[in-house]
Design goal:
296 residues; alpha/beta; Rossmann fold; N-(1-d-carboxylethyl)-l-norvaline Dehydrogenase, domain 2; 6-stranded parallel beta sheet; 3-stranded mixed beta sheet; 13 helices; 9 strands; 53% helix; globular
Length: 296
């Protein structure tokens, strides 16, 4: 059976490990966390002690990491993955990072004969566990037929966006819209409940009307019941993505009028110590300003 590496076993990486094991691959896993290592070993993965060690045994590697700096360190650091990967290897970076870093890592890969793809995903931990993630792909189009089976091992909908960095642009745009809708839902439910309308009935109207959106089904339960500490996608991660989105928009000379305002709301919630809460906790900013609670 083919060896595949996984670097980063947070909520998303764990689902990838499980699905790759179910597909019959030998999974070589690395994460600095002792708990993550113990979990991987229990699931049947082979635990190694560095990114470089992963590259020495696998020609196909998935990474799932928190942000650009860590991704770059894992790829190019003193014990980095690129030190041991051979020519013809594939790296699928499912982290959400800035397009410029993705392009830079791709260029380093080109120089070594490594195919680097920015492959940010959407679908959350539940989608990762089920193997139904939406995978956005940026990189060398010529090799797509060869890599599709690997991507289908973790995802259901695979979208090729274009050259390196394109998938990161798509993911940042996607998450900005999710963030805006989440904040808008918090505002609308605050108005509705304060005016005496049952929040569940209001949600039902939105679900069947033109305001229907998937954000409501994913984050709605936390908003409607006030269970913001039940983290589906952390506020810290969404805040990071919004900063990367704003950076990308500035580089393209596009004003971020709506996204910028919403980003300030996430920053306010983060400053209140809610970074580890679900990203829907941005709704508490409106609740507090309006002196109301949606889940009442």
């Amino acid at each position: 059976m083919e060896a595949i590496g996984v670097i980063g076993m947070g909520a998303m990486g764990k689902g990838m490990v499980c699905n790759l094991l179910r597909k019959g691959y030998h999974v070589y896993a690395y994460d600095p966390s002792p708990d993550a290592k113990a979990w991987a070993k229990e699931k049947g993965a082979i635990v190694v002690e560095s990114p470089q060690a992963v590259g020495s045994v696998a020609r196909v590697v998935f990474t799932s990491l928190p942000g650009p700096e860590i991704v770059e360190e894992v790829m190019l650091g003193a014990d980095g993955l690129y030190l041991s990967l051979g020519a013809g290897s594939f790296v699928f970076d499912t982290s959400t990072i800035d397009p410029a870093t993705a392009k830079r890592l791709n260029q380093y890969g080109v120089e070594k004969g490594i195919y680097y793809y920015d492959c940010p995903v959407s679908g959350g931990p539940a989608g990762s566990a089920a193997g139904t993630l939406t995978v956005m792909v940026g990189g060398d189009e010529e090799m797509l037929p060869e890599i599709m089976d690997y991507l289908r091992a973790i995802g259901k909908e695979i979208f090729y966006l274009g050259e390196s960095g394109s998938a990161q642009v798509a993911k940042l745009c996607h998450n900005s819209v999710v963030a805006v809708i989440t904040a808008a839902l918090g505002e609308a439910f605050s108005v509705g409940t304060k005016a005496g309308v049952d929040r569940h009935k209001l949600a039902a109207v939105m679900d069947k009307g033109s305001a229907h959106n998937r954000v409501l089904s994913v984050f709605g339960p936390n908003i409607l019941y006030g269970t913001y500490e039940n983290t589906v996608f952390s506020l810290d991660h969404m805040y990071k993505d919004l900063q990367l989105y704003a950076q990308t928009a500035r580089e393209q000379q596009v004003p971020v009028l709506v996204g910028g305002t919403v980003a300030q709301m996430y920053e306010a919630a983060k400053a209140q110590g809610k970074g580890s809460w679900d990203s829907s906790a941005v709704c508490t900013v409106t609740e507090e300003l309006a002196h109301t609670t949606i889940a009442r």
